[in-house]
Amino acid sequence: MPLIESLDQKALQVPLLLTPGPLTTSASVKETMLVDHGTWDDDYKVLTQSIRQALLAVGHADPELYTSVLMQGSGSFGVEATLQTAVPQDGTLLIAMNGAYGQRMATMATRLGIKHLDLDFGETQIVSAEKVLNVLNQHPEVTHFAMVHSETTTGILNPLTPLIPKLVEMGIVTIVDAMSSFGGVPIDVTQLGVDYLISSANKCIQGVPGFAFVLAKQLTLAATEGNARSLSLDLYDQWTCFEAEAGKWRFTSPTHTVYAFRQALNELIEEGGVAARHTRYAANEKQLRAGMLALGFEPLLPTAVQSPIITSFKYPDNRFDFRRFYESLKQAGFIIYPGKVSKAKTFRIGNIGEIYPEDIQQLLAVIAKIDAVPSAAVSQ
């Protein structure tokens, strides 16, 4: 008898993940993980270096000014590594937030002993450059600034301009969590001048979980030696190891994820790059929004601030049973997210990954038949 009970066949069926990452990947990305690799192998180190260079190209980051650093773990590991390496003991961090992931940065800063100020915009308002600059005028001690680009708590997309370039001009070190936007929303890192931009393998580049990555301004990162409060999450030491040892990771790396990521990068290029992928994601979101409205589901956010990444919908009425709704969708082969908004009952549907118009159409057809949706909503 096996020590762990085998999964039944239903659990092994391939669902569509309508989530902001992990997300649905292509068959070819999955297939690359069928081969095992060694972490000390020279070919693997060459692959690591090529990925680091490719990420700079995806982000339009000038390789003379920027570097990329891969970090084992989820996206939050990359964020925490950046915060605790970037901000010195005598630094002060201003965090602009409008959702759970901005709040998570504040929690990290507290745990790390980083002095920080929190500017909370609420969950449905974008980060305002004017308000950020007003706070900075009142707090000249601030040395670093952090924000989330695509806040998947709601699906809101916070503008990076003109705020980030303005802060760079002021000498503030800037940190952007672009976890759910990099690779799916056009970003010109060099033009922004941002110091640190963080994302993850299992987001818009459509790889699988296993590592985060940071695009960092070389001069800024070079000044952070000794800042880190932890050994494993020392972004500076990770960078210098990659540089000095031709692509070697300091500690055991997720080899299968790295090879899958290379395939995912190739498929991003084949699709037409970030612009083409953004067009597909935006079309998915538009189709989903229109279809859900027709079924009686109101989006939480107006289109003006909605990202193409994930869309939040309000419960149609108090009788709506999300658990029943979720399980019905799961049985039909779709996995969605519950809501994360504190002041409204919502659920979320992602638009990214290996998802196309026919998938959205099929999803809408399934939703129209689910009895967890009040009959008044279905008939509209």
Blueprint of the fold:
Blueprint: H1 9-12, E1 16-17, H2 27-31, H3 42-58, E2 66-72, H4 75-86, E3 92-97, H5 100-112, E4 115-120, H6 129-138, E5 144-148, E6 150-151, E7 156-157, H7 163-169, E8 173-177, H8 189-192, E9 196-200, E10 211-217, H9 218-222, H10 235-244, H11 255-271, H12 273-294, E11 310-314, H13 322-331, E12 334-335, E13 337-338, E14 346-350, H14 357-367, H15 375-378
Parallel strand pairs: 1-12, 3-4, 3-5, 5-8, 8-9
Antiparallel strand pairs: 2-10, 6-7, 9-10, 11-14, 13-14
Overview of the molecule:
By secondary structure, the protein is α/β, with parallel strands linked by helices. The chain has 15 helices and 14 strands. The protein has helices spanning 9-12, 27-31, 42-58, 75-86, 100-112, 129-138, 163-169, 189-192, 218-222, 235-244, 255-271, 273-294, 322-331, 357-367, 375-378, and strands spanning 16-17, 66-72, 92-97, 115-120, 144-148, 150-151, 156-157, 173-177, 196-200, 211-217, 310-314, 334-335, 337-338, 346-350. The strands form four sheets. It has a seven-stranded mixed sheet, sandwiched between helices. Strands 11-14-13 form a three-stranded antiparallel sheet, with helices on one face. Strands 1-12 form a two-stranded parallel sheet. Strand 6 (150-151) and strand 7 (156-157) form a beta hairpin. The longest helix is centred in the C-terminal third of the chain and has 22 residues, at 273-294.
